[in-house]
Amino acid sequence: LFYRIKIVLSQLTLQLVNHTVIDLQQGSSEATITRNNLATFSKNASPNFIVYRIQQTPVHGYISLKKSGMKVLEFTQSQIDSSEIQYIQTNFTCDDEFFVDIVHFESKHKKKPLNGVKIKVQTRPLVKAIKPFLIAHPGDYSLLSYEYIDARYGF
To answer: Number of C-alpha atoms within 13 angstroms, CB side, residue 11?
Structure first.
């Protein structure tokens, strides 16, 4: 008695679908990393098995779990989708960056299809300068209006 078995092999592919700057509002020390900032998709993998491994940590902060505040060097796409991962800034004067490898991790598979992905963190100012220069002379008064700075909309 013989049975034919058809085995189909499908190649593991990870696709980085969102990769944007993480905005940290000026005056704040934390920014949630969302799916809009970082999203990887694979038709062959659950978000639980798409893992981001930090290869070079941020210089002016760290990555942590939002609930516990515990520093992490590894997190999943599922955690990003659930808004569980955040960047914490420790030096309030600088933008930052870190590098991750994005891997598919299951018990039998360990592949590294996306290495050295650069993630930027940028401080977003509270006030937007609309006109570049305001001319002021020593001892004189200058009118400062919405034409020069604007903090109404929070960008």
So the answer is: 5
